[in-house]
Every structure is written in structure tokens, then in C-alpha cells.
Amino acid sequence: MDCQRFHMSRFFLLSLCWAVWSVWLCAGDPNEASTVNLQSFIGCAVREFRFTARKPGCRALQITTDACWGRCETWEKPVLDPPFVESHQRVCTYNETQLVTVRLPDCAEGVDPGYTYPAALRCDCGLCATTTTECVTSV
Fold it and tell me: Which of 88, 115, 120, 134 is at a distance of 20 to 30 A from 74, taking alpha carbons?
């Protein structure tokens, strides 16, 4: 094999390894923690979230679930007509959820121990809808 062909083959293999490694890094195992820099991340992703489920008559329960998290591209520009600003407000919102029901501990007699909450399956940057999200402007 001549020297030029050897270097081209080596370059191709290194490029292929880099591409496979990059895809592995981006896709990763969904059960493993992400190595994304959350300070600079722009976009919307499913992320582990912890909260306390409370219901009158039952003891509280710590729950770990998946929720939508991220920052989406947003902008405003001045215009001559009222309201004198044109805004483009996108928020990180749920595309697909699954309802999960757990049993709260030590509920008083006659109190249903069931507690249902949504778990995120898929998230995306979308228009802000005041029916499900606290927004500056409504859609």
C-alpha cells in the first residue's frame, strides 16, 4: 500500500470513529445521566425531576419522574404599531406524556391513596399556551 493511500485510509477510519463516538455521546443510554452542559444548553429535553406528592389525609411521598426542561429561542423586536413589540416566545413543553399513579402512604380511612401525575416521554420547544403554561403572552 502506498503512503498516500495509507494516510487516506487512516483519515477515513479516524473520521468514522469520531462520527460513531459523537453519535454515541449524543444518543447515549437513556438510562444513564447526561453529560450535557446545562449552563449552555439551548433546546428542550426530558430530564429527571423530583417533587413531593401531597394529599390531605395522607403522608407525603418523594417522587422521581421525568419532566421537560430547557431553554428555547425567544426574541422581541420593536414595531411602530401597538402593542409596539413583536415577540416570538417559545417554551419547553410536553409533546407526549404518560399518566402514572402511585399509592401515598398512611392515608386516613376513607381517603383514596391514589396520586396521579404526568411523566414526560417527549418534549419540544413550542408556542406558549396559557391553558397549560405560565406565559408572558397568550396563544
Answer: 120
